[in-house]
Amino acid sequence: MKIAVCVKVISEEPIWLKGNHRIDPETLRLARGDRALLSPFDRHAVEEALRLKEAAGEGEVVVVSMAPAMAGDALRAALAMGADRVLLVADDALRGSDLLVTGRVLARALEREAPDLVLFGPQGEDSNGAVLSAAVAERLHVPVVSQAARVEAVAGRVRVERKTEKGHDVIEAPLPCVISVVTSINQPRYAAARGTIAAKTKPVDVLSLADLGIAPEQAGHAGAGTDVNAIRDPPPRAEAHLIRNDDGTAAEQVLAYLGERGLL
Amino acid sequence: MTETLVYVEDDGGEPTADSLGVLSKAVDLGGEVGAVLCGSAVAGSAARLREFGAARVYVAEHPALSDQVPQPRVDVLARLHGERGFESLLFATSTLTADIAAGLAARLETGLNWDLVELERRDGALVGTRLALDDSVSVEVAWKRKPQLALIRPGTFEPQRRADEATVENVEVSFEDWSTQAVVVEHRDVQGEEQSIEDAVVIVAGGRGIGRPENLALLDELAAVLDGAVAATMPLVDMGWCPQSMQVGQTGKRVRPKLYIACGVAGAIQHKVGMDRSGTIVAINTDPNAPIFRFCDLGVIGDVCDVVPGLTELIRRQRA
């Protein structure tokens, strides 16, 4: 079974510390730190791909990413976990790409690989992983299952368990298909020293837009469907409605509040 | 021409409150607004929808729409858009609608902005606001193509009833062959089960202010009647009252339920970063100066042991 895992490369700094000076005021884009890392969320997708390959007893795990060329090293972390090779789409013309462009580029890269299964990671902070899986599946004309908490692949089909707002579902689909996973699906393995050494010699192929047959005007800001006008400080949260439980009616007031907002 | 189409999610014969909130916002933005419902039996929801200001309610009923899967719905919306030509299509975010909107954006080769907390019309075009990087920045977003697709953060807009009544129209449906291949073979409701906190729609969280480990039972009971999960702050995990898997915060999990009920939680920054993207935050704490009262929606100054059991009982009675 050939499994492609679509991953994102993120900047090293912890997001919660930084606030709006992580945004480049000139380009209104996320300023990248000096060091790139494989998104910790996407390690769950890599782990699941490795488990499925191990369960099948054969196959190949290809890591696919759209990122700056410097991200090649970060993607070796997936190779150190056990993935077989990396396909990195890197092109200056990709700067300012949105969901529309990213879906277009990943789908085109995946078409070249023709995997049996495409995995995406969970939605991360400021990541569009969760929406990308459905966009890519649409372009590949294959079924999609998101939020997978358990995946089994048997006899050309997948069986996926997932939990949504509406309960537990078991969904079946034929291969090829696209699946996005949640973090609870597994515990990503640490790369052993041996894996890190092996990763150094595994192939990292870098493709340009021209290699994929995508015109520059179909990529980056030019090809995007959305735009960023401005970055500001967030609005202050509306002041809380405070009540005291002096008369013992607080529970009733909370009940009424939740009822009015359709939360019961 | 209908300018805006709002996708209305049906939950057991009722339109969801979040969908109605987005519909109300669309009506406020002006122009003719349509609403679309997809399912195998959604006539009940359609009737309820009529009083929320849409000029038209489009109903797509088909057995292939009985499963809560996105791709057949992409087909319905793409066809309806092909026939009517909407300026914008709006969705209240859920697991299902995020996939529908993303698939539709790819099909129509157009832009999708998601997780919006505000939407306005400027010179005829939509402008949205998205909170990014853990809500530490506010991003003003726009669209470069039409139709303009948007996913709105849950709990953002309130539903409002209107005087006008919509006309209800059944629409024809057809499906692409890849759209009907993912099928739900089993479904069961989450009721009464232990949930992982990342997936929970409702979280009841405990902090040091609950006093004693025995009081966690009060939180369990409240979570049970709300079909929710129980979470904890770092001190409770450090004291060994709760396993690490329950911890929300900087060194724990980041959660975003629709409802977060913080019981005896002071609201330290380390906890705040893990939960302040929740839809509605209710805080119960004896200390009126607790930081959590500065970033909750409803604050109760009182003892968890006094308030929580009463609330549990009231909800249980209402649900019975």
Structural notes for this entry:
- The complex is a heterodimer of chains A (about 260) and B (about 325).
- Chain A is α/β, with parallel strands linked by helices.
- Chain A has a single domain, classed as Rossmann fold, CATH 3.40.50.
- Helices cover about 30% and strands about 30% of the residues of chain A.
- Chain A contains nine helices and 15 strands.
- In chain A, strands 11-10-9-12-8-1-6-7-13 form a nine-stranded mixed beta sheet, sandwiched between helices. In chain A, strands 2-5 form a two-stranded antiparallel sheet.
- In chain A, helix 3 links the parallel strand 6 and strand 7.
- Chain A is globular and about 70 Å long.
- Chain A starts with a strand and ends with a helix.
- The relative contact order of chain A is 0.17.
- With about 325 residues, chain B is α/β, with parallel strands linked by helices.
- Chain B has two domains: about 180 residues, HUPs (Rossmann fold); about 120 residues, TPP-binding domain (Rossmann fold, 3-Layer(aba) Sandwich), CATH 3.40.50.
- In chain B, the strands form three sheets. Chain B has a nine-stranded mixed beta sheet with strand order 9-8-7-10-6-1-4-5-11, sandwiched between helices. Chain B has a five-stranded parallel beta sheet with strand order 14-13-15-16-17. A two-stranded antiparallel ribbon of chain B has the order 2-3.
- The longest helix of chain B has 16 residues.
- The radius of gyration of chain B is 21 Å and the shape is elongated.
- The model of chain B has no long low-confidence stretch (mean pLDDT about 90).
- The chains are: A alpha/beta (about 260), B alpha/beta (about 325).
- Chains A and B meet through helix 1, helix 4, helix 5, strand 9 and strand 10 of A and helix 4, strand 7, strand 8, strand 9 and strand 12 of B.
- Strand 15 of chain A pairs parallel with strand 17 of chain B, so a sheet runs across the interface.
